[in-house]
UniProtKB/TrEMBL annotation:
This is UMP-CMP kinase. One of its GO terms (cellular component) is nucleus. Its EC number is 2.7.4.14. CMP binds at N112. CDD domains: ADK. GO terms for biological process: 'de novo' pyrimidine nucleobase biosynthetic process; nucleoside monophosphate metabolic process; pyrimidine nucleotide biosynthetic process. One of its GO terms (molecular function) is ATP binding. It is found in: Cytoplasm; Nucleus. It comes from Rhynchospora breviuscula. Catalyzes the phosphorylation of pyrimidine nucleoside monophosphates at the expense of ATP. Plays an important role in de novo pyrimidine nucleotide biosynthesis. Has preference for UMP and CMP as phosphate acceptors.
Amino acid sequence: MGSATEATKDISENLLGHKKVTVVFVLGGPGSGKGTQCANIVEHYGFTHLSAGDLLRAEIKSGSENGTMIQNMIKEGKIVPSEVTIKLLQTAILESGNDKFLIDGFPRNEENRAAFERVTGIVPEFVLFFDCSEEEMERRLLGRNQGRVDDNIETIKKRFKVFVESSLPVVEHYESLGKVKRIDAAKPIPEVFEDIKVIFSSLASKVMKLVIISS
Ligand SMILES: Nc1ncnc2c1ncn2[C@@H]1O[C@H](COP(=O)(O)OP(=O)(O)O)[C@@H](O)[C@H]1O
Ligand SMILES: O=c1ccn([C@@H]2O[C@H](COP(=O)(O)OP(=O)(O)O)[C@@H](O)[C@H]2O)c(=O)[nH]1
Ligand SMILES: [Mg+2]
């Protein structure tokens, strides 16, 4: 897929249910290692990484009219209105030219989840869930050193509360559909990736089987 017009055509076919786009939601608490492992998955399995938080931070930097609102929500650890985040994700999907996406850090609440499915018609292949203690996540966030306005102890506590109250119900929803693949994210980075490889290698062989059966 090359031009923007072709990309638009492809996604509209997906909305009509004709063309399959593979989406994996990568969820887990702040500091659980989602971004770190998404970079590894991209390198080995050809997915496009879409971090909702990164897209929101880029929107602030671009000088968008929503910039101040987004900045304030992030500083407070609050969830930005879903129409803003979904629009950014949709645009990134359309512009990527790829058909396999890791959506990292979204959906963050049930309303995000339902709105994304309604607007895009996309349901995730599965959810990769990073399981990690708050104690370990706090240690990692305080050592992240990326100059983020939300990596301070006050905002971190708020983010943990939002995660438990609003984001975990999304994981539970997908759990009830048998779609959650849980990773022990407390292990060192290379060991976490070894566990992730098992999941993505079996996804790749499943896709190969489908190709063979249908051809
Ligand atoms: N398994 C791990 N063990 C120790 N530190 C990690 C691990 N995974 C990530 N980190 C570090 O923790 C911080 C947060 O990781 P990041 O990938 O940004 O998490 P998230 O996107 O889930 O908030 C980063 O500084 C990263 O280098
Ligand atoms: O779908 C999203 C993703 C992120 N955020 C906001 O962006 C912040 C940082 O999100 P990110 O995923 O970058 O944080 P991480 O979990 O990686 O530490 C969150 O606390 C929210 O305020 C949001 O509102 N909606
Ligand atoms: Mg992240």
